[in-house]
Amino acid sequence: MKADDEIQGKSSYTPASGKVIEKEEMINLIDSALDGWFTASRYAKRFEKMLADYVGSSYGILVNSGSSANLLAVTALTSHLLGDRRLKKGDEIITVAAGFPTTIAPIVQNGLVPVFVDVDAETYNVDCKQLELAISDKTKAIILAHTLGNPFDIDAVKRFADSRGLWLIEDNCDALGTVYKGRKTGAFGHIATYSFYPAHHVTMGEGGALSTNDVLLNKIIISLRDWGRDCICQPGEDNYCGKRFDGQFGMLPRGYDHKYVYSHFGYNMKVTDMQAAIGVAQLDKVDRFAKVRKENFEQLSVALEKYADLLELPKATDGSDPNWFGYILKIKKNDFFVRDDLVRYLENHGVGTRLLFAGNLLKQPIMTEDNIPHRVIGSLVNTNDIMESVFWIGLWHGLDKIDIQNTISVFDDFMKEYKILGK
Question: Is 18 within 8 Å of 199 (Cβ atoms)?
Fold first, then answer.
């Protein structure tokens, strides 16, 4: 449980994120290893069905990381199989500047153009009023993440996307288990993506996934994940369709082995079955883990409310029940301290902190030095404020009430040191 502390070299360090591995994961891991079939197999199939059932989608596709999931999601929309709806080089995708780079990278890697809009000052999600300003005749899709588990205004985004005939990719990597108006996030977009890196709600070490309700998108994503092949046979399986040597594909000789027919330039982004075995055990526990996260969120909120004149506490999107990824805080303008003062104090006193990922992506070296084609809507006032004033701390399911109270005590000590308590 406290292996993360050892990595930090501190005996009392409270990491901002981490994993909980129990006996069920180890039993599954050993069971899978004893098969001697190490690539994706029975546990991978089981996980894909479990994930689809959990979020309420028709299909789940397991991959090797959340970043790969985002790459496959965007790349799938460029497939020739989509006909007139396919994305072509130069087409635009609307997204936010306050986010994670691998939400944006697939846009650039596919020769598409990101259009950056600002976020809402309270929820740190997309400012839906800016969507209309971002539209052009080249706009073809939207990709948005649910920031730290707090969902964006899905109703407003879907209305906009549907009215314009836009694809919607829902980056659900930080929000597994979040509920919006009675439904799990991950079931609203044309494609949703997930990450199972150890910092996330459940883990399989490295891993990710996609979900969709669209049978054609499911076929395209699987093809891209599995080298770009046209065949739907699983690893180790032959002639599932019964027509392996009967087809005519492209300019190949008739009857060319369908296992070696390629309809896309794809990748190999599968996981091992041992990873999937861990994930199966973890996914069974996601609601239990979420309960702990929500309890920790509440404990932090009650304790830090007394500093509401200095700290802006997290606010859930209307109609949502977030499975929070972290506890996000913004330093309000004051005469006593700035974010750097508080973050350094917390870290020096054993409380792990993280910034809101890239802050403003447009300020990052990759954008400033490589001259990436893009458009920007407005001045990104709130995004810049995030870059300067926002950070988050841990509330993950490996922390108990004592850990959270220790974190609160460090905040109290900081406030006393800065002569703010009782101000």
Answer: yes
Q: Which of 146, 190, 200, 374 is catalytic?
A: 200
State residue 3's pLDDT score. 44
The single-letter code of the amino acid at 222 is I
Mean pLDDT by 10 residues, the chain (423 residues): 43 91 98 94 97 98 98 98 98 97 96 98 97 98 98 98 98 98 98 97 97 98 95 78 87 91 95 98 98 98 97 97 98 95 97 97 90 95 98 98 97 89 53
Which positions ≥6 away from 137 have C-beta within 8 Å? Answer: none
Cα–Cα distance for residue pair 115/374, rounded to 1 Å: 6
Q: Where are the beta strands (DSSP E) in 177-295?
A: 179-180, 183-184, 191-195, 208-212
Residue the block writes with tokens 């920007």: 376
Q: What is the CA radius of gyration of the chain?
A: 23
CB 278 within 8 A of CB 205: yes
What is the model's pLDDT at position 11?
55
Strands across the sheet containing 167-171: 59-63, 208-212, 191-195, 167-171, 139-145, 92-96, 113-117, 375-376
Residue 200 is among the residues annotated as catalytic for this protein: yes
Query: In 252-396, which ranges are continuous DSSP H helix?
Result: 273-283, 286-304, 339-348, 365-370, 381-389
Length reported for the chain: 423
Tell me what pLDDT residue 25 has: 98
